[in-house]
Amino acid sequence: MSDEVGLQVEKSSAGADLLVELVRSVHLTPTQRNIVRTLIRHSDRAAYLSATEVAELSQVSQPSVTRFAVALGFEGYPQLRAAMREAGRAPGHGDSQPRNEWQRSIDFELAAMAQVRESLAKEDEMREVAAILASSRPLVVAGLRAGASVAQYFAYCASQFLDDVRLVPSFMGGDVDVLIQARSAGATAALMMVFPRYAEDALELIDKAKEVGLTVVCMTDSVASLAAGSADRLLISPVDSSLPFDSYAVPMIVANVLLSAMTEVDVAAAHRRLEAYEAAAEAAGMYRA
């Protein structure tokens, strides 16, 4: 495969594995993500490249490489390089098949899904959140920028068994009017989707929702999220940031589990609404199958 498109398989992956683990806990700029991709593509020699060589391969400035190392918690690039070399000397290195960056991304998703699966053993926590949201009439759902796709999916599905679901338009950058109108109509809760890189307007929307008296349930990537301190309840849904664009595979799974739990808050009512929706869809010829 061509190295230019980033699919070269590494001869030595321990340094790349270290990088992947390090970047999970920080939120990188597009330039820094490019550096990560470069180091992974060249992981067979990344631990021996100078900062200048990494900069040339990544087509960025040398100071950008230094800032990248500092962002990962190192004093500078030499310390990061030393850590990658040490990882390559660790016992057991070379026992597994080498993987490319796409495979590593999926590895993260699988590990995150396993983490979520284990957390769902505590059913009461999810059911409590589901009850908070299902009892709100109307229910406000918001996901700005990165969170818009998850919010739209959730709102579309929820509207099939809830009477009134109000999706904050993502293009309006957090329209407080929707919050005020929903609260006036009787809303008691809002579900917010906030993921890296934590859009300022999304964070502000949480504060505005609380100001108008809504209980805020926030789906976000970790307990260290910038949204964690403001929300009333959290739904942790890890996001993979190793590729140029974040993956929301795990948040979509968590959203689907939450929807399922919400239908169980009032099973009879949810069943009636879903049956009515299906009947209307069939009458309108909405689907071919």
UniProtKB/TrEMBL annotation:
Segments forming domain HTH rpiR-type: 15-91
GO molecular function, one term: carbohydrate derivative binding
Gene3D superfamilies named in the record: Glucose-6-phosphate isomerase like protein, domain 1, Winged helix-like DNA-binding domain superfamily/Winged helix DNA-binding domain
Domain of life, source organism: Bacteria
A Pfam family: HTH_6
SUPFAM superfamilies hit by this protein: Homeodomain-like, SIS domain
InterPro entries referenced in this protein's UniProt entry, alphabetically: Homeodomain-like_sf, HTH_RpiR, RpiR-like, SIS_dom, SIS_dom_sf, WH-like_DNA-bd_sf
One GO-annotated biological process of the protein: carbohydrate derivative metabolic process
Protein name: RpiR family transcriptional regulator
Organism this protein belongs to: Propionicimonas paludicola
